[in-house]
Amino acid sequence: MKRVMFLVLALLAVTAACGISSDNAPRQIADDKVPFGLLGPTNAAQANTVPGGPTVRLFFLDGTRVHEVFRGVPDLEPQTEQT
Fold it and tell me: Nearest Cα to 29, choosing from 72, 65, 59, 63?
């Protein structure tokens, strides 16, 4: 009985460790952890550009598929105050 309970608890621990953890904020993923097809060039259209600002590449998870999206962001360089 103890062995069965130990095996069940060990299986639950391994299953929980393999799950996808939830994040409270975005985090960078190492290049070697990104699926191969996402690292290459893309033909996705760029959208939502901000004049004078850089364009960033974002990835969104839709169920089991990852979608690449381009978004424009304002230039975030600090402005010096002129007196």
Answer: 59
pLDDT in tens, 31-56: 788 777 676 666 655 455 556 677 88
Nearby residues of 31 by Cβ (< 8 Å), 6 or more positions away: 39
Burial call 57-74: b when 16+ CB within 10 Å, e when fewer:
eeeeeeeeeeeeeeeeee
**CB neighbourhood size of 55 (10 A):** 13
CA 69 to chain centre: 12
